[in-house]
Design goal:
Length: 164
């Protein structure tokens, strides 16, 4: 086996592990590029790494080298997304199906309605609320959760913001 074959198998295994442990839809969020300018200005832990042998360190990464959010590059419905998940019975569910809808207020199926809009810091993706906020999966059940892409115009204002 060639070294490149070993590397490809290692990368495939790492990607599979990342996908199975994912807590988000890869590439979809409020920034056009993964962590945006925040990762350009500094090495942000748990984002991008460079390794020499068995030693790895966090790296600052130019935006054009970060994972790109595909949504702002669509011809239409390119200002954000909505994750729509049904409510879950108190006993739980063996499986669950939902929808990822592209665009906010651009079609009859993606209106913002009376959703509460919460602005997101364009520099680091943080936001503040007056109450404790838990983004765990139970939060998403039975809700439409909107993610407006930075610098994109929507009925709720210009992104970035989240709404529910």
């Amino acid at each position: 086996m060639r070294d490149s074959d070993s590397l490809l198998k290692l990368l495939a295994a790492a990607c599979l592990a990342l996908l199975l442990a994912a807590s988000a839809v890869p590439g979809v969020g409020v920034f056009k590029h993964d962590c945006g300018s925040n990762c350009v200005q500094q090495a942000v832990p748990a984002t991008y790494y460079g390794c020499a042998g068995s030693t790895c360190t966090s790296l600052a990464v130019a935006e054009d080298l970060q994972v790109a959010n595909p949504i702002p590059y669509f011809a239409t419905d390119n200002n954000g997304s909505i994750l729509m998940l049904p409510a879950v019975a108190s006993g739980g569910e063996a499986s669950l199906s939902g929808q990822l809808v592209f665009g906010i207020g651009t079609q009859s199926n993606n209106g913002l309605g009376s959703a509460q809009v919460i602005g997101v810091s364009p520099s680091d993706g943080t936001f503040a609320t007056s109450t404790i906020f838990d983004w765990g999966m139970p939060f998403f059940y039975g809700r439409n959760v909107y993610a407006a892409v930075e610098q994109q115009s929507t009925p709720g204002g210009t992104g970035p913001y989240i709404a529910y």
